[in-house]
Structure formats: C-alpha cells, structure tokens
C-alpha cells in the first residue's frame, strides 16, 4: 500500500516536471551574458535572402529567420521560396513562425483569422522542412509585450496581449475550442535596428547605429552583464548590403559572441525534437541536459530520495 502511494507520487512528480520542461516562455534576451542572437523577419525574399545567406555562411554565423507564408514570397506556390527555406535549414540556421499573412495578432484575433495565420504556416513548413516551429514572433510584437515592459518603453499596453499569449502558449481552449495546443515560445527583442526605415539616402546606417546604441551603448550595456536578441529584416537590399555587415562588425568589436537563438535562450526551435532541449530554470541559469529522459531520471531519483527520507523521519520521530 505504501509502495503504491510512493509510485503514484513519483509518477505525478515526473509528469509535472515534464509539463514544466516544455511549457512555453517569452524571451527578449539571451540567458547568458555576452551573447547576441541575430533574427530576421518578413522573408524569404528571393533576391535578398540568398544574398544574406551567402554572407552569413562566409562569416560562419547562424541566424534565425521568422518567415511568413505569404509576404515577400509565397511558400505555397513558389519553389524559390521553398528552396530558400530549405537552404536556411541545411546551412544550420533556424526557422520560426511570423504568421502566414504577417497580420498583426490583435487584428487577426478580432476578425477570426488568427487560427489560420498560425496553422496554415505550420502546415506549410512541416511539408517543406519536415519541422514544426516552436519559436514564434508576433508581427509588430502584438501580443508579446507585457504591461511592465510597455511602461518601461512608454507605450500603451493592450489587454488583449494576455489572450494572444495564452493562445500561443497552449491555453487557446480558454478563448475558443478551435485553437490548437500550440506550445510556442514567444520571441521578442531588446535591440531594434530599425533597418526597415532605411532607404540608404535620407535614412542611412547612421540611424541604425543610433538605434542600437540606445540599447547596446557602452553607458547602458556590457558583455559581462548583458545579452541581446537583435531584430532585423532580410527583405531589404540596404539591410543585406550595408546594415548587417556593419552591425556584425560592431557587435564583435563590443566583445559579444553571435550565437543561434536556440543557444541564446536554451530552447529547441522545433517541436519534433523537444527530447533534446536545454532546460531553462527560474533563476535564468542554463541547466544543460543531454536528453529529456536524463532529466526525468534525475527527478525520479531526487523525488524517491526525498520520499524515503520523509518516511524514515515519520517512522523514527
């Protein structure tokens, strides 16, 4: 009888840990200081994205691309778009969701198209690269920024944020039975290049560097204490030709290491290989694990030891 209770307790503990290990989170910086993750939104573009991939390959940099299904390319009927995404994967980059139509999440939710924007791109990416993304960047950041963060950067907070967060992290049943168990990690940023404003004439690289100095300047950040997720766009010629090389050079000169987003936040980029995730604990330290099963085994041992000690204490005291 005591053994049955103990077994139930162990199984319950391990199952609770499993839920914890895979629960969705929200990130706008890396876990370890001194790291920078390069992220690119809105592509692929059949001209600019391949040029960027050539540069990243030459510099031995791995980036994360938050792609759209239909924006500058069309994943459903363009072989160019499909091949670019396959190339991103084959060259060691990571692919995340930026929704199918790049429609801001508040608008999509209100008009009833959020489910399609999420699931249509999931389906297409599964067909093209055989992976379902776990990283999700909401267009314009809608649904990502907390009330506290909005106060910090002095923008209005929208209460619909909690609805979008809930849907993306797997609690969509609270807002409608049609939403799936998405379990996304929401990826924001804490360094915005504002490269989308640059035309190379009136607004140039100087604007980008001013924007980055706002968050990464020597009076505000240091590699020994700070880390960054950097937002750029792979669909603009000026970004690929001028902004990215300049930004990469500056980041390295400041003493930061450029790492893949998965290393930056310690999470698997795809749902299909969650058995080899890196667990992030509540103190924002990384706990490396060779496999999910190893973690479960450790938890079982720890829980078993705790229960045995508790039983012995009750017997003798």
TrEMBL record:
Gene3D superfamilies: Glycoside hydrolase/deacetylase (3.20.20.370). The chain crosses the membrane at residues 296-316. Its cofactor is Co(2+). Keywords: Carbohydrate metabolism, Hydrolase, Membrane, Metal-binding, Signal, Transmembrane, Transmembrane helix. Residues 34-259 form the NodB homology domain. The keyword Signal applies. GO terms for molecular function: hydrolase activity, acting on carbon-nitrogen (but not peptide) bonds; metal ion binding. One of its GO terms (biological process) is carbohydrate metabolic process. Residues 1-21 form the signal peptide. This is Glycoside hydrolase/deacetylase.
